[in-house]
Amino acid sequence: MNCLIWSDEFQYRVKNFLEKAFERASQGNKILYPCKDCKNHYWHYRDVVEDHLLSRGFRVGYTKWTFHGESTSSRKTHHPINDDEGSNMRDDIDGLLHDTFRNVEAKLGHEEGDREGLPEDVKKFFKLLEDGKKQLYLGCENFSKLSFTIRLFLFKSLHGLSNVAFLDLLVLIKEAFPLALIPESFNKAKNVIRDLGPDYEKIHACPNDCMLFWKDNEKAENCSVCGTSRWKSVDGVSTTVRSKILARVLRYFPLKPRHQRMFKCPETAVAIKWHANERPNDGNLRHPADGQAWKDFDHLYLDFSRDPRNVRFGLSSDGFNPFRTMSISHSTWPVMLMNYNLSPWIYIKTEYLMLSMIIPGPSSPGNDIDVYLQPLIDELNELWEHGIKTYDVKTKETFQMRATLIWTVSDFPALAMLSGWSTKGKLACPSCNYYTCSRYLKHSRKICYLGHWRFFPHDHPLRKDKKSFDGNEEHRPAPTPL
Q1: Residues 6+ apart with CB under 8 A from 42
Q2: Residue 375 pLDDT level (bands cut at 50, 70, 90)
Q3: Burial per residue of 31-66, b for 16 or more beta-carbon CB atoms within 10 angstroms, e otherwise
Q4: Cβ 396 vs Cβ 411: under 8 Å
């Protein structure tokens, strides 16, 4: 159960488990799926169950195999959602608060009753501590006010409930259990767990994408480039006096607290070092660390590569229409970061893709995307030059975590925005540079790109094939990549 799913030991032990499970199978040639996703809800044949276990691992907490022939006599009370052995079926809220507020606990020297003059983070800690101790209702041992609210938010997220549906669910539960400490509204429920973080920042932006009202310009009322107000105007009258409706808002999600939190979980603290400790080094290309770019980077920056916990990012961005209809022209640009330290079957999963910022619509930022990327670049520079103190729960030590952006992943139009290289016109190829083979078509008024048979070997017969191409033989060598 505690083996890494990509290890040979895990594969060997899974086969042993299946042999014992099928010996005692009640349906002969089928058993329940004990993997993370299926959670013992479905029956299937051995080869399918084996594939699920090897790719997804066992269900968390399923240490007593009651569905696969093991005795239930030593188990405590059963709960259909949580099968943790000996845990009395309670969420580890104390452990959650300890990991989240480790730095706060280290500097606490006040009594809980004395709250005057305490720092804000200490007050948040005490507030969450109280909510974690309050029983959901008198005699409830499975949930506290905090743990139940967290579980509700998890339910909302997993099943895509809207805020209105979530509110209706709260009202229904409140009617059924009037004495339970259940939040009365979505906002009150959000306030209960808001202090667990990490949160995001709202950064005001010029409606014309000229600048951000950030750092030195945070209190400015008008754009220093075009003079446009940061507030919306209604019928030509600015809203600064009454409602102050912002014209455009960039939502930025800081990287530091989220990566610090990854090292507070033993499993992810180990997984982040997969590229150095677990990756098979047999010459096959199965992970970015097997590529030449990664190796050249390690050779250039030995101090950075010496610690496998230092993070290598990939950045990706593209526009999409969030309104599910093509009749509305709208383009919102999320900027995503991928942690390439993780194994290839983990870093592309939704829970490990990190949303860095949401660039608002209704139009694409175009070449002005660099204006919105300023907070991200600023934080990346800080993580590269100085790093941040991070506690590694696996080694039980504090280290200076650094990070770098090793490459970007995008389609061709987005490449022009992110790199500044024009992907239109005569020199559109970012690899060939000035050796781009382009030709202007007079009648269609477009530029086409020919000459790709230059990349054939020098003795290839297609180099002399005039009829299939432009009527000329091709004897030029392939261009040197930029």
Answers
A1: 32, 33
A2: very high
A3: bbbbbbebbbeebbebeebbebbeeebbbeebebbe
A4: no
Helix (H), strand (E), coil (C) string for the chain: CCCCCCCHHHHHHHHHHHHHHHHCCCCCCCEECCECCCCCCCEECHHHHHHHHHHHCECCCCCCCHHHCCCCCCCCCCCCCCCCCCCCCCCCHHHHHHHHCHHHHHCCCCCCCCCCCCCHHHHHHHHHHHHHHCECCCCCCCCEHHHHHHHHHHHHHHHCCCHHHHHHHHHHHHHHCCCCCCCCCHHHHHHHHHHHCCCCEEEEECCCCCCEECHHHCCCCECCCCCCECECEECCEECCCCCCCECCEEEECCCHHHHHHHCCCHHHHHHCCHHHHCCCCCCCCCCHHHCHHHHHHHHHCHHHHHCCCCEEEEEEECCECCCCCCCCCCCEEEEEEEECCCCCCCCCCHHHCEEEEEECCCCCCHHHHHHHCHHHHHHHHHHHHCCEEEEECCCCEEEEECEEEEEEECCHHHHHHHHCCCCCCCCCCCCCHHHCCEEEECCCCEEEECCHHHHCCCCCHHHHCCCCCCCCCCCCCCCCCC
Domain boundaries, the chain: 1-89, 93-196, 253-419, 424-482
Give the separation between CA 106 and CA 256, rounded to whole angstroms.
Answer: 20
What does R_g of the chain's alpha carbons equal in angstroms? 28
Mean pLDDT of the chain: 80
In the predicted model, what is the mean pLDDT of residues 27-37?
70
d(C-alpha 154, C-alpha 176), whole Å = 21
Looking at residue 18, its pLDDT comes to 80
**What are the CA-CA distances from residue 215 to residues 141, 204, 330, 378 (Å)?**
48, 11, 29, 11
- Separation CA 90–CA 327 (nearest Å): 49
Written as six digits, the tokens of 451 are 């000459």
What is the pairing mode between strands 201-205 and 212-213? antiparallel
Which pLDDT band, with edges at 50, 70 and 90, does 182 fall under?
confident
